[in-house]
Amino acid sequence: MSVVSFPVPSFLRTNNLWRGKGTINADCLAKFESFMISSNDFRPGVSIVLDGSVWRVIDFLHVKPGKGSAFVRTTLKNVQTGKQLEKTFRAGETVPQATLEKVTMQYTYKDGDEFVFMDMESYEEGKLTTAQIGDRVKYLKEGMEVNVIRWGEQVLEVELPNSVVLEIVQTDPGVKGDTATGGTKPATLETGAIIMVPLFIAQGERIKIDTREDKYLGRE
Predict the structure, then answer these.
(1) pLDDT for 17-55, tens place per residue?
(2) Range of the domain at 64
(3) In the chain, how many domains are there?
(4) Boundary (domain end) residue, out of 159, 179, 198
(5) What is the 3-state composition of the chain as percent helix, strand, coil, each rounded to the nearest 5?
């Protein structure tokens, strides 16, 4: 029995989703088409594939002009780099939807320039680099659980908790009566991160930090 083959759709090659021969069988084609999403179904948080990268829909607007075809104006964010992009799609245009996997992992120790994490379900260990974790690596502490976002075998994003509690290991002495001045000073945390804290905060105190905005939230 012969296998029916079709030309490989251009969107597969454009988005680096196909690196095989010039034809594709019907079953494989059907699987790829099942991953497509219409621009009419865009919502904030939806992840799509453009030019071989994963982008997340941040905002969208359906526009139906008096003349001409309807379209969807979007704001997209590159999941890996954080870069934002304004892009317009035809109404009903289909693009590949990225299937992302979220895995909860616990940071166990540092091995040279890499960070070792343990999968909380399989208990298998894996290593991530500073580049993969991103700027919030400065708040990473042994025992902390994070969410690792993967697209296939590629790590796109590492989500730390939105807030963490850490000890101050170095800062200028607190000054009595400074509680109402509104002034701030730099403080070094146990992970090496440096943030601005109120003048009355002293070395050895544990404080809560917003990891998204590098902001002091209060004492613990």
Answers:
(1) 445 555 544 444 444 545 789 999 999 999 998 888 899
(2) 37-99
(3) 4
(4) 159
(5) 15, 50, 40
